[in-house]
Design brief:
Elements (H helix, E strand, L loop, with lengths): L1 H7 L3 H14 L4 E2 H8 L3 H14 L5 E6 L2 E6 L4 H8 L9 H13 L2 E2 H8 L4 H9 L3 E6 L7 E5 L1 H6 L16 H8 L18 H14 L1
Antiparallel strand pairs: 1-3, 2-3, 4-6, 5-6
Helix pairs in contact: 2-4, 3-4, 6-7, 6-8, 6-11
Length: 219
Protein backbone atom coordinates (compact mmCIF):
# COMPACT_ATOMS: atom_id res chain seq x y z
CA UNK A 1 0.00 0.00 0.00
CA UNK A 2 2.85 2.32 0.85
CA UNK A 3 4.43 1.63 -2.57
CA UNK A 4 1.19 2.55 -4.31
CA UNK A 5 0.88 5.79 -2.35
CA UNK A 6 4.45 6.71 -3.23
CA UNK A 7 3.82 5.90 -6.91
CA UNK A 8 0.67 8.04 -6.93
CA UNK A 9 2.75 11.05 -5.87
CA UNK A 10 5.15 10.64 -8.80
CA UNK A 11 4.27 12.42 -12.02
CA UNK A 12 5.34 10.79 -15.34
CA UNK A 13 8.28 13.16 -15.76
CA UNK A 14 9.67 12.22 -12.35
CA UNK A 15 9.32 8.50 -13.14
CA UNK A 16 11.28 8.93 -16.35
CA UNK A 17 14.01 10.80 -14.47
CA UNK A 18 14.24 7.96 -11.95
CA UNK A 19 14.50 5.35 -14.70
CA UNK A 20 17.18 7.35 -16.47
CA UNK A 21 19.23 7.62 -13.27
CA UNK A 22 18.94 3.89 -12.56
CA UNK A 23 20.02 2.97 -16.09
CA UNK A 24 22.89 5.45 -15.89
CA UNK A 25 24.41 3.95 -12.73
CA UNK A 26 23.72 0.31 -13.65
CA UNK A 27 26.93 -1.65 -14.25
CA UNK A 28 25.18 -4.08 -16.62
CA UNK A 29 22.03 -4.20 -18.77
CA UNK A 30 18.77 -4.36 -16.80
CA UNK A 31 15.60 -6.29 -17.50
CA UNK A 32 12.34 -4.41 -17.05
CA UNK A 33 11.37 -6.92 -14.35
CA UNK A 34 14.47 -6.01 -12.33
CA UNK A 35 13.66 -2.31 -12.56
CA UNK A 36 10.04 -2.94 -11.58
CA UNK A 37 11.10 -4.88 -8.48
CA UNK A 38 13.65 -2.25 -7.47
CA UNK A 39 11.17 0.61 -7.83
CA UNK A 40 8.12 -1.26 -6.59
CA UNK A 41 6.18 -0.25 -9.71
CA UNK A 42 3.88 -2.36 -11.90
CA UNK A 43 5.80 -4.09 -14.69
CA UNK A 44 3.50 -2.79 -17.41
CA UNK A 45 4.09 0.79 -16.23
CA UNK A 46 7.87 0.33 -16.28
CA UNK A 47 7.76 -1.14 -19.79
CA UNK A 48 5.64 1.77 -21.04
CA UNK A 49 7.94 4.33 -19.41
CA UNK A 50 11.04 2.66 -20.90
CA UNK A 51 9.59 2.95 -24.39
CA UNK A 52 8.74 6.61 -23.78
CA UNK A 53 12.22 7.23 -22.38
CA UNK A 54 13.86 5.58 -25.38
CA UNK A 55 12.06 8.02 -27.67
CA UNK A 56 13.23 11.02 -25.67
CA UNK A 57 16.84 10.08 -26.46
CA UNK A 58 16.34 10.15 -30.24
CA UNK A 59 17.93 13.57 -30.68
CA UNK A 60 20.45 13.32 -27.85
CA UNK A 61 23.98 12.03 -27.39
CA UNK A 62 22.83 8.88 -25.62
CA UNK A 63 20.42 6.19 -26.69
CA UNK A 64 18.39 3.69 -24.69
CA UNK A 65 18.72 0.27 -26.32
CA UNK A 66 16.87 -2.96 -25.62
CA UNK A 67 19.13 -5.87 -26.51
CA UNK A 68 18.49 -9.49 -25.61
CA UNK A 69 15.53 -8.41 -23.50
CA UNK A 70 17.63 -6.05 -21.36
CA UNK A 71 17.89 -2.25 -21.36
CA UNK A 72 21.05 -0.15 -21.28
CA UNK A 73 22.20 3.39 -22.01
CA UNK A 74 24.78 3.69 -24.78
CA UNK A 75 26.59 6.46 -26.58
CA UNK A 76 24.57 7.30 -29.69
CA UNK A 77 26.21 6.04 -32.87
CA UNK A 78 25.96 9.48 -34.49
CA UNK A 79 28.29 11.04 -31.88
CA UNK A 80 30.60 8.05 -31.37
CA UNK A 81 33.44 9.44 -33.55
CA UNK A 82 33.70 12.58 -31.40
CA UNK A 83 33.58 10.58 -28.18
CA UNK A 84 36.33 8.32 -29.51
CA UNK A 85 38.49 11.32 -30.37
CA UNK A 86 38.04 12.67 -26.87
CA UNK A 87 38.87 9.40 -25.18
CA UNK A 88 41.49 8.53 -27.82
CA UNK A 89 40.36 4.92 -27.65
CA UNK A 90 37.93 2.80 -29.56
CA UNK A 91 34.45 2.92 -28.05
CA UNK A 92 34.33 -0.87 -28.14
CA UNK A 93 36.85 -3.61 -28.51
CA UNK A 94 37.16 -4.69 -32.13
CA UNK A 95 37.40 -8.35 -32.97
CA UNK A 96 40.20 -9.70 -35.13
CA UNK A 97 39.50 -10.84 -38.69
CA UNK A 98 39.73 -14.52 -37.66
CA UNK A 99 37.43 -13.97 -34.68
CA UNK A 100 34.86 -12.12 -36.78
CA UNK A 101 34.83 -14.81 -39.47
CA UNK A 102 34.46 -17.57 -36.87
CA UNK A 103 31.72 -15.66 -35.07
CA UNK A 104 29.87 -15.09 -38.35
CA UNK A 105 29.79 -18.83 -39.07
CA UNK A 106 28.50 -19.58 -35.57
CA UNK A 107 25.87 -16.83 -35.77
CA UNK A 108 24.39 -17.98 -39.07
CA UNK A 109 24.89 -21.73 -38.81
CA UNK A 110 24.33 -22.46 -35.11
CA UNK A 111 24.38 -24.97 -33.59
CA UNK A 112 27.70 -25.75 -35.28
CA UNK A 113 30.74 -27.86 -34.42
CA UNK A 114 34.36 -26.76 -34.57
CA UNK A 115 34.95 -29.15 -37.49
CA UNK A 116 32.12 -27.51 -39.44
CA UNK A 117 33.52 -24.04 -38.69
CA UNK A 118 36.97 -25.09 -39.90
CA UNK A 119 35.48 -26.79 -42.95
CA UNK A 120 33.57 -23.64 -43.74
CA UNK A 121 36.49 -21.23 -43.20
CA UNK A 122 39.13 -23.52 -44.70
CA UNK A 123 41.55 -23.01 -41.80
CA UNK A 124 41.94 -24.15 -38.20
CA UNK A 125 39.63 -22.22 -35.91
CA UNK A 126 40.35 -23.59 -32.45
CA UNK A 127 42.18 -20.46 -31.29
CA UNK A 128 39.61 -17.82 -32.40
CA UNK A 129 36.81 -20.08 -31.16
CA UNK A 130 38.47 -20.33 -27.74
CA UNK A 131 38.96 -16.55 -27.66
CA UNK A 132 35.29 -15.98 -28.49
CA UNK A 133 34.36 -18.30 -25.62
CA UNK A 134 36.59 -16.27 -23.28
CA UNK A 135 34.79 -13.10 -24.47
CA UNK A 136 31.46 -14.86 -23.80
CA UNK A 137 30.29 -14.26 -27.37
CA UNK A 138 29.84 -17.99 -28.07
CA UNK A 139 29.13 -20.95 -25.83
CA UNK A 140 28.56 -24.69 -25.85
CA UNK A 141 24.89 -25.37 -26.62
CA UNK A 142 24.96 -29.16 -26.92
CA UNK A 143 26.60 -32.07 -28.69
CA UNK A 144 26.11 -33.31 -32.24
CA UNK A 145 24.45 -36.69 -32.82
CA UNK A 146 27.37 -38.06 -34.81
CA UNK A 147 30.30 -40.31 -33.85
CA UNK A 148 32.35 -38.69 -31.14
CA UNK A 149 29.50 -36.33 -30.19
CA UNK A 150 31.50 -33.12 -30.79
CA UNK A 151 30.51 -29.92 -29.01
CA UNK A 152 28.11 -27.62 -30.82
CA UNK A 153 28.47 -23.86 -30.46
CA UNK A 154 25.96 -21.03 -30.49
CA UNK A 155 25.89 -17.34 -29.71
CA UNK A 156 25.14 -15.72 -26.33
CA UNK A 157 23.21 -12.73 -25.03
CA UNK A 158 26.53 -10.88 -24.93
CA UNK A 159 26.73 -11.44 -28.69
CA UNK A 160 23.38 -9.64 -29.05
CA UNK A 161 24.58 -6.80 -26.83
CA UNK A 162 27.91 -6.52 -28.68
CA UNK A 163 26.07 -5.90 -31.97
CA UNK A 164 23.19 -3.98 -30.30
CA UNK A 165 20.49 -6.27 -31.67
CA UNK A 166 17.50 -7.66 -29.81
CA UNK A 167 17.47 -11.18 -31.31
CA UNK A 168 19.08 -13.34 -33.98
CA UNK A 169 16.15 -12.45 -36.23
CA UNK A 170 17.68 -8.97 -36.48
CA UNK A 171 20.72 -10.35 -38.32
CA UNK A 172 20.73 -9.28 -41.99
CA UNK A 173 19.72 -11.80 -44.61
CA UNK A 174 22.65 -13.53 -46.26
CA UNK A 175 23.06 -13.74 -50.01
CA UNK A 176 21.71 -16.99 -51.43
CA UNK A 177 23.45 -16.94 -54.81
CA UNK A 178 25.33 -20.08 -53.78
CA UNK A 179 23.29 -23.28 -53.46
CA UNK A 180 25.69 -24.55 -50.79
CA UNK A 181 25.19 -21.35 -48.78
CA UNK A 182 21.44 -21.73 -49.20
CA UNK A 183 21.60 -25.24 -47.76
CA UNK A 184 23.69 -24.01 -44.83
CA UNK A 185 21.19 -21.19 -44.15
CA UNK A 186 18.02 -23.25 -44.48
CA UNK A 187 19.09 -26.79 -43.49
CA UNK A 188 16.20 -28.64 -41.91
CA UNK A 189 16.16 -28.26 -38.13
CA UNK A 190 19.81 -27.12 -38.27
CA UNK A 191 20.79 -30.78 -38.49
CA UNK A 192 24.54 -31.32 -38.48
CA UNK A 193 25.58 -33.17 -41.66
CA UNK A 194 27.54 -36.36 -41.07
CA UNK A 195 30.10 -35.44 -43.73
CA UNK A 196 30.02 -31.77 -44.71
CA UNK A 197 31.00 -31.00 -48.28
CA UNK A 198 34.47 -29.52 -48.68
CA UNK A 199 34.04 -27.96 -52.12
CA UNK A 200 32.43 -24.78 -53.37
CA UNK A 201 31.82 -23.42 -49.89
CA UNK A 202 31.29 -19.66 -50.06
CA UNK A 203 33.89 -17.61 -48.17
CA UNK A 204 33.06 -16.89 -44.55
CA UNK A 205 34.36 -13.36 -45.21
CA UNK A 206 30.99 -12.49 -46.77
CA UNK A 207 29.23 -13.28 -43.50
CA UNK A 208 31.94 -11.53 -41.51
CA UNK A 209 31.37 -8.36 -43.52
CA UNK A 210 27.67 -8.45 -42.65
CA UNK A 211 28.42 -8.54 -38.92
CA UNK A 212 31.07 -5.85 -39.29
CA UNK A 213 28.50 -3.69 -41.10
CA UNK A 214 26.09 -4.01 -38.16
CA UNK A 215 28.92 -3.14 -35.78
CA UNK A 216 29.71 0.07 -37.66
CA UNK A 217 26.06 1.10 -38.05
CA UNK A 218 25.06 0.47 -34.43
CA UNK A 219 28.19 1.79 -32.82
Amino acid sequence: MEGRDELAKLDPEKRLAILEAILFVASSPLKSEEIARACGWPLILVEEDLLILSHTFKSRGLELVCSGGSWRLLTAAKVAPWVERFLKVESRRRLSKAQMETLAVVAYRQPVTRAEIENYRGVRSDRPLSQLEDLNLVRCVGRARIPGHPIQYGTTNDFLRYFSINSLEDLPEISLESEVLKKIKTSENNKVPESPQKVNLPPSKSLSKLLDKIKRQRG
